[in-house]
Every structure is written in structure tokens, then in C-alpha cells.
Design brief:
By secondary structure, the protein is mainly β. The protein contains no helices and eleven strands. Helices cover about 0% and strands about 50% of the residues.
Length: about 110
Amino acid sequence: QVQLQESGPSLVKPSQTLSLACTVSGVSITTNGAYWNWFRQPPGKGLEWMASISWDGRTDYRPSLKSPTSISRDTAKNQVSLHPSSVTTEETAVYYCYQWIYWGQGTQVTVSS
């Protein structure tokens, strides 16, 4: 059974770097053809795709992201991570990990001083 579990801080201050992890079980993140994605949903708004990383490490990002963001993976831990930096209150959202038909439950992040 494939499961995706997001984790990270629930509260960060403006200008800090946010570190989110998606721990995957039931399948290897290096499975051929797999693309691992991060989405977010700000309060009162729809889902927004942020970034993806492929089974072989290629990355792609939403061009309109205002905060510099990186996506990475740790194959030993079977994790995919997202790191928005210099965050503002606009990064307040529920963040989700997604692959194919599988969604994580999401993790709420609030950016506030």
C-alpha cells in the first residue's frame, strides 16, 4: 500500500526557510517513471502545483513562485523535500505531497511573526 506522509513546522517566521518532507512508503521514489510533486492550498484558494522531482532526480518548478524554492530527494530515506526560502505570509497554506493517484494528508504551515 502506497502512503505519502508530509511533515514540517506548523509555524515559521517571515524571511525564514521552510523545510517540508514527504516520507513515502510502499514504493521507491526511484521507481521508473515516477514524478513526485508538491502542491499547496492557501486559505480560501484552490490547489497550486509548486514543484516536482522525477525518479531520476530531474526537477521542475512553477514559474510564478515568489519565494525561491528548491525540491530535493533522499533516496536512503525514501523522502522528497521542499524548501521555500525567504517565506512571506503568502506561503501560509496546507502543503501536500502527490504522485500518480496518491495524496498525502497535508500539513498546515502558517507564516507569521
